[in-house]
Write the structure tokens for this entry.
Amino acid sequence: MGIQYHGICKKCGKRFKIMDGGGFAFHMLRCNKCGKHKMVPFEKLGELHLRYLKGLNQPYSLATAHYDNLIKELFPGEPLSEDSYEAAIEEFVGKCRCGGQYRFNAPPRCPRCRCTDFEIDNTGALCYD
Ligand SMILES: [Zn+2]
Ligand SMILES: [Zn+2]
């Protein structure tokens, strides 16, 4: 489940959009240099995601539980742990145009001055997917 909200940069005052967490059908990564968001749909990951589902002890989410169980039974690949799955995705996504690397745990960042110090503005926050 992801949430979208705004941050207000403490340095330059810019209000910017922040998206946190992935949805049912995608992951959300962020560039560790400029803070740009990168959405990665599960379907683009192909076998990688199936191997991860197979490695889980429980379904990824209630909504996909049926599908997840089917994968466990039918998919012949090797299960993948969460850590190696995330590392593999970061590699798959590659580098941002700014030269930074997309990461799961990169902090939100002001797009104007790249400062990571900001206030959270909940006005207009919404959940997606
Ligand atoms: Zn700023
Ligand atoms: Zn970047």
